[in-house]
Amino acid sequence: MTTSSGRRTMPTIEHKLNITEEEVPEHIRRLAQEQGECPSSKDKVIEQFRNYILEHNECQPHRSDAKYLEKFLRARYWKIENSYKLLCSYYKFREQNKSFYEKVRPLDLRHVGQSDILTVTPYRDQHGHRILIYRFGLWRPNRVTVDDIFRATIVLQELGSLEPISQIVGGVGIFDLKDLGLEHILHLSPSVAQKMIALLVTSMPIRTSALHIVNQNWLFNAAFKIFKPFLNAAMREKLYIHGSDMTSLHKHINPEHLPKRYGGLHEDYSYTLWLDMLKEQCSGNSVQKDMEQLGFIFD
Length: 299
Hints:
Elements: H1 26-34, H2 42-56, H3 66-75, H4 80-96, H5 110-114, E1 118-120, E2 130-135, H6 146-160, H7 164-169, E3 171-176, H8 182-185, H9 190-202, E4 208-214, H10 220-227, H11 233-236, E5 239-243, H12 246-250, H13 272-281, H14 286-293
Parallel strand pairs: 2-3, 3-4, 4-5
Antiparallel strand pairs: 1-2
Helix pairs in contact: 2-3, 2-4, 3-4, 6-9
Protein backbone atom coordinates (compact mmCIF):
# COMPACT_ATOMS: atom_id res chain seq x y z
CA MET A 1 0.00 0.00 0.00
CA THR A 2 1.13 3.58 -0.65
CA THR A 3 -0.15 6.92 0.56
CA SER A 4 -1.01 9.87 -1.68
CA SER A 5 2.52 11.14 -1.12
CA GLY A 6 3.94 7.86 -2.40
CA ARG A 7 5.21 6.72 1.01
CA ARG A 8 5.01 2.95 1.62
CA THR A 9 2.64 1.89 4.38
CA MET A 10 1.77 -1.54 5.70
CA PRO A 11 -1.77 -2.94 5.64
CA THR A 12 -3.56 -3.59 8.91
CA ILE A 13 -2.24 -6.83 10.40
CA GLU A 14 -4.66 -9.31 11.98
CA HIS A 15 -3.65 -11.87 14.56
CA LYS A 16 -5.28 -14.98 13.13
CA LEU A 17 -4.40 -18.65 12.87
CA ASN A 18 -4.65 -20.22 9.42
CA ILE A 19 -5.90 -23.63 10.53
CA THR A 20 -7.70 -24.86 7.40
CA GLU A 21 -6.24 -26.65 4.39
CA GLU A 22 -8.21 -24.26 2.17
CA GLU A 23 -5.96 -21.40 3.33
CA VAL A 24 -2.83 -23.05 1.90
CA PRO A 25 -1.73 -21.07 -1.20
CA GLU A 26 -1.14 -22.96 -4.41
CA HIS A 27 2.63 -22.36 -4.43
CA ILE A 28 2.89 -23.88 -0.96
CA ARG A 29 0.78 -26.85 -2.09
CA ARG A 30 3.35 -27.39 -4.82
CA LEU A 31 6.14 -27.17 -2.23
CA ALA A 32 4.34 -29.78 -0.11
CA GLN A 33 4.34 -32.15 -3.08
CA GLU A 34 8.05 -31.54 -3.62
CA GLN A 35 8.52 -32.53 0.03
CA GLY A 36 6.83 -35.87 -0.54
CA GLU A 37 3.16 -35.11 0.08
CA CYS A 38 1.01 -36.80 -2.55
CA PRO A 39 -2.73 -36.02 -2.41
CA SER A 40 -3.67 -39.35 -3.99
CA SER A 41 -1.68 -41.49 -1.53
CA LYS A 42 -1.72 -39.26 1.57
CA ASP A 43 -4.40 -41.25 3.39
CA LYS A 44 -2.52 -44.49 2.73
CA VAL A 45 0.76 -43.09 4.13
CA ILE A 46 -1.03 -41.79 7.24
CA GLU A 47 -2.51 -45.27 7.80
CA GLN A 48 0.96 -46.81 7.37
CA PHE A 49 2.31 -44.34 9.92
CA ARG A 50 -0.50 -45.22 12.34
CA ASN A 51 0.31 -48.92 12.00
CA TYR A 52 4.03 -48.20 12.42
CA ILE A 53 3.28 -46.46 15.74
CA LEU A 54 1.24 -49.45 16.96
CA GLU A 55 3.88 -51.95 15.89
CA HIS A 56 6.81 -50.20 17.55
CA ASN A 57 4.96 -49.03 20.65
CA GLU A 58 7.80 -46.83 21.96
CA CYS A 59 5.40 -43.96 22.63
CA GLN A 60 1.65 -43.65 23.01
CA PRO A 61 0.33 -40.48 21.36
CA HIS A 62 -2.84 -39.07 22.88
CA ARG A 63 -4.33 -38.87 19.39
CA SER A 64 -3.99 -40.96 16.25
CA ASP A 65 -6.42 -39.23 13.90
CA ALA A 66 -5.22 -38.28 10.43
CA LYS A 67 -5.12 -34.54 11.06
CA TYR A 68 -2.86 -34.99 14.09
CA LEU A 69 -0.46 -37.51 12.54
CA GLU A 70 -0.18 -35.46 9.37
CA LYS A 71 1.73 -32.65 11.06
CA PHE A 72 4.46 -35.05 12.19
CA LEU A 73 4.74 -36.46 8.67
CA ARG A 74 4.92 -32.98 7.16
CA ALA A 75 7.63 -31.98 9.63
CA ARG A 76 9.81 -34.86 8.41
CA TYR A 77 8.98 -34.81 4.69
CA TRP A 78 6.61 -37.80 4.85
CA LYS A 79 9.35 -40.23 5.87
CA ILE A 80 7.65 -42.61 8.29
CA GLU A 81 10.71 -43.65 10.31
CA ASN A 82 11.90 -40.05 10.80
CA SER A 83 8.36 -38.93 11.62
CA TYR A 84 8.15 -41.66 14.24
CA LYS A 85 11.43 -40.55 15.81
CA LEU A 86 10.03 -37.01 16.00
CA LEU A 87 6.79 -38.27 17.54
CA CYS A 88 8.70 -40.17 20.24
CA SER A 89 11.00 -37.21 20.86
CA TYR A 90 7.97 -34.96 21.26
CA TYR A 91 6.33 -37.22 23.83
CA LYS A 92 9.60 -37.78 25.65
CA PHE A 93 9.99 -34.00 25.96
CA ARG A 94 6.42 -33.70 27.25
CA GLU A 95 6.99 -36.45 29.80
CA GLN A 96 10.23 -34.88 31.03
CA ASN A 97 8.73 -31.38 31.21
CA LYS A 98 5.17 -31.87 32.42
CA SER A 99 5.14 -28.49 34.15
CA PHE A 100 5.37 -26.78 30.75
CA TYR A 101 2.00 -28.24 29.74
CA GLU A 102 -0.10 -29.60 32.57
CA LYS A 103 -2.37 -27.07 34.28
CA VAL A 104 -0.65 -24.20 32.45
CA ARG A 105 -3.01 -21.32 31.75
CA PRO A 106 -1.79 -19.60 28.56
CA LEU A 107 -3.74 -16.45 29.37
CA ASP A 108 -1.72 -16.15 32.61
CA LEU A 109 1.50 -15.69 30.59
CA ARG A 110 0.65 -12.06 29.87
CA HIS A 111 3.58 -10.88 32.02
CA VAL A 112 5.97 -12.62 29.58
CA GLY A 113 4.38 -10.75 26.68
CA GLN A 114 4.46 -7.44 28.48
CA SER A 115 8.22 -7.84 28.95
CA ASP A 116 8.66 -8.10 25.14
CA ILE A 117 11.07 -11.02 25.50
CA LEU A 118 9.47 -13.02 22.70
CA THR A 119 6.77 -12.94 20.09
CA VAL A 120 5.75 -14.41 16.76
CA THR A 121 4.93 -12.20 13.83
CA PRO A 122 1.25 -12.21 12.78
CA TYR A 123 2.46 -11.94 9.17
CA ARG A 124 4.66 -14.32 7.15
CA ASP A 125 7.90 -13.80 5.25
CA GLN A 126 8.30 -14.25 1.50
CA HIS A 127 8.52 -18.03 1.94
CA GLY A 128 5.44 -18.35 4.16
CA HIS A 129 7.32 -18.59 7.49
CA ARG A 130 6.14 -16.96 10.65
CA ILE A 131 9.05 -15.40 12.52
CA LEU A 132 9.72 -16.23 16.18
CA ILE A 133 11.65 -13.34 17.75
CA TYR A 134 13.53 -13.42 21.06
CA ARG A 135 14.94 -10.25 22.60
CA PHE A 136 16.93 -11.69 25.46
CA GLY A 137 18.46 -8.37 26.47
CA LEU A 138 15.02 -7.30 27.76
CA TRP A 139 14.73 -10.35 29.99
CA ARG A 140 14.71 -9.69 33.72
CA PRO A 141 15.19 -13.10 35.38
CA ASN A 142 13.85 -11.80 38.70
CA ARG A 143 10.51 -11.01 37.02
CA VAL A 144 10.17 -13.72 34.36
CA THR A 145 11.42 -17.24 35.03
CA VAL A 146 13.17 -19.43 32.49
CA ASP A 147 10.29 -21.88 32.79
CA ASP A 148 7.77 -19.18 31.87
CA ILE A 149 9.78 -18.38 28.74
CA PHE A 150 9.59 -22.08 27.84
CA ARG A 151 5.86 -22.17 28.55
CA ALA A 152 5.27 -19.10 26.40
CA THR A 153 7.38 -20.58 23.60
CA ILE A 154 5.51 -23.89 23.72
CA VAL A 155 2.14 -22.13 23.46
CA LEU A 156 3.35 -20.43 20.27
CA GLN A 157 4.88 -23.63 18.88
CA GLU A 158 1.76 -25.68 19.56
CA LEU A 159 -0.46 -23.05 17.96
CA GLY A 160 1.85 -22.85 14.95
CA SER A 161 1.77 -26.62 14.54
CA LEU A 162 -2.01 -26.39 13.99
CA GLU A 163 -1.49 -24.34 10.81
CA PRO A 164 -1.11 -26.39 7.61
CA ILE A 165 1.00 -23.63 6.03
CA SER A 166 3.45 -23.70 8.94
CA GLN A 167 3.45 -27.51 8.96
CA ILE A 168 4.70 -27.42 5.37
CA VAL A 169 7.18 -24.53 5.39
CA GLY A 170 8.20 -24.44 9.07
CA GLY A 171 9.22 -21.24 10.78
CA VAL A 172 12.31 -19.09 11.32
CA GLY A 173 13.79 -17.65 14.48
CA ILE A 174 15.57 -14.39 15.25
CA PHE A 175 17.67 -14.24 18.42
CA ASP A 176 18.25 -10.57 19.14
CA LEU A 177 21.11 -10.41 21.66
CA LYS A 178 21.28 -6.64 22.08
CA ASP A 179 22.06 -5.81 25.74
CA LEU A 180 22.71 -9.46 26.61
CA GLY A 181 24.41 -9.39 30.00
CA LEU A 182 26.03 -11.62 32.59
CA GLU A 183 22.73 -11.87 34.47
CA HIS A 184 21.33 -13.67 31.43
CA ILE A 185 24.34 -15.92 30.81
CA LEU A 186 24.16 -17.15 34.41
CA HIS A 187 20.71 -18.58 33.70
CA LEU A 188 21.73 -20.34 30.45
CA SER A 189 22.76 -23.73 31.80
CA PRO A 190 23.34 -26.75 29.53
CA SER A 191 19.93 -28.03 30.65
CA VAL A 192 18.25 -24.80 29.52
CA ALA A 193 20.16 -24.90 26.22
CA GLN A 194 19.15 -28.51 25.61
CA LYS A 195 15.48 -27.70 26.19
CA MET A 196 15.63 -24.68 23.90
CA ILE A 197 17.15 -26.72 21.08
CA ALA A 198 14.57 -29.46 21.68
CA LEU A 199 11.80 -26.90 21.23
CA LEU A 200 13.27 -25.28 18.14
CA VAL A 201 14.94 -28.23 16.43
CA THR A 202 14.37 -31.79 17.58
CA SER A 203 11.14 -32.27 19.49
CA MET A 204 8.27 -30.23 18.04
CA PRO A 205 6.09 -31.08 15.01
CA ILE A 206 7.07 -27.90 13.22
CA ARG A 207 10.43 -27.34 11.53
CA THR A 208 12.75 -24.43 12.25
CA SER A 209 14.07 -23.55 8.80
CA ALA A 210 16.70 -21.06 10.00
CA LEU A 211 17.98 -19.32 13.13
CA HIS A 212 19.33 -15.79 12.78
CA ILE A 213 21.54 -14.20 15.44
CA VAL A 214 21.58 -10.39 15.43
CA ASN A 215 23.13 -7.67 17.59
CA GLN A 216 25.39 -10.09 19.46
CA ASN A 217 28.07 -8.70 21.76
CA TRP A 218 31.22 -10.15 23.31
CA LEU A 219 29.15 -12.42 25.57
CA PHE A 220 27.77 -14.30 22.58
CA ASN A 221 30.76 -16.64 22.44
CA ALA A 222 30.11 -17.73 26.03
CA ALA A 223 26.43 -18.34 25.29
CA PHE A 224 27.17 -20.16 22.04
CA LYS A 225 29.55 -22.57 23.77
CA ILE A 226 26.60 -23.68 25.91
CA PHE A 227 24.30 -24.23 22.92
CA LYS A 228 26.80 -25.62 20.39
CA PRO A 229 26.96 -29.23 21.71
CA PHE A 230 23.22 -29.60 21.16
CA LEU A 231 23.21 -28.35 17.56
CA ASN A 232 23.44 -31.10 14.98
CA ALA A 233 25.29 -30.58 11.70
CA ALA A 234 22.12 -29.85 9.76
CA MET A 235 21.06 -27.14 12.22
CA ARG A 236 24.50 -25.53 12.25
CA GLU A 237 24.12 -25.04 8.51
CA LYS A 238 20.86 -23.16 9.17
CA LEU A 239 22.41 -20.86 11.79
CA TYR A 240 23.30 -17.38 10.51
CA ILE A 241 25.17 -14.75 12.50
CA HIS A 242 24.62 -11.19 11.28
CA GLY A 243 25.81 -8.84 14.03
CA SER A 244 24.29 -5.40 13.51
CA ASP A 245 24.40 -5.74 9.71
CA MET A 246 20.73 -5.88 8.80
CA THR A 247 21.52 -6.03 5.08
CA SER A 248 22.95 -9.47 5.84
CA LEU A 249 19.65 -10.48 7.48
CA HIS A 250 17.76 -9.08 4.48
CA LYS A 251 19.46 -11.62 2.22
CA HIS A 252 17.33 -14.21 3.98
CA ILE A 253 14.21 -12.30 5.04
CA ASN A 254 12.86 -9.52 2.84
CA PRO A 255 12.62 -6.25 4.83
CA GLU A 256 8.95 -6.08 3.84
CA HIS A 257 8.47 -8.91 6.31
CA LEU A 258 10.51 -7.60 9.23
CA PRO A 259 9.99 -5.14 12.09
CA LYS A 260 11.43 -1.66 11.70
CA ARG A 261 14.10 -2.41 14.31
CA TYR A 262 15.63 -4.86 11.82
CA GLY A 263 15.43 -2.52 8.86
CA GLY A 264 11.91 -3.59 7.97
CA LEU A 265 8.54 -1.93 7.60
CA HIS A 266 6.46 -3.43 10.41
CA GLU A 267 5.74 -2.22 13.90
CA ASP A 268 6.49 -4.52 16.82
CA TYR A 269 3.60 -6.82 17.73
CA SER A 270 3.40 -8.02 21.32
CA TYR A 271 3.00 -11.63 22.41
CA THR A 272 -0.04 -10.45 24.37
CA LEU A 273 -1.90 -9.92 21.09
CA TRP A 274 -1.75 -13.68 20.49
CA LEU A 275 -3.20 -14.21 23.97
CA ASP A 276 -5.98 -11.79 23.10
CA MET A 277 -6.59 -13.79 19.93
CA LEU A 278 -6.83 -17.01 21.95
CA LYS A 279 -9.35 -15.45 24.32
CA GLU A 280 -11.49 -13.71 21.70
CA GLN A 281 -11.34 -16.03 18.67
CA CYS A 282 -10.67 -19.51 20.02
CA SER A 283 -12.97 -19.82 23.01
CA GLY A 284 -14.80 -23.13 22.67
CA ASN A 285 -13.54 -23.91 19.16
CA SER A 286 -11.25 -26.67 17.85
CA VAL A 287 -8.07 -24.71 18.68
CA GLN A 288 -8.98 -24.49 22.36
CA LYS A 289 -9.99 -28.16 22.41
CA ASP A 290 -6.67 -29.18 20.83
CA MET A 291 -4.76 -27.13 23.41
CA GLU A 292 -6.83 -28.51 26.30
CA GLN A 293 -6.01 -32.05 25.20
CA LEU A 294 -2.34 -31.14 25.70
CA GLY A 295 -3.03 -30.12 29.31
CA PHE A 296 -3.52 -26.37 28.93
CA ILE A 297 -6.36 -24.78 30.89
CA PHE A 298 -8.74 -22.11 29.65
CA ASP A 299 -11.30 -20.72 32.09
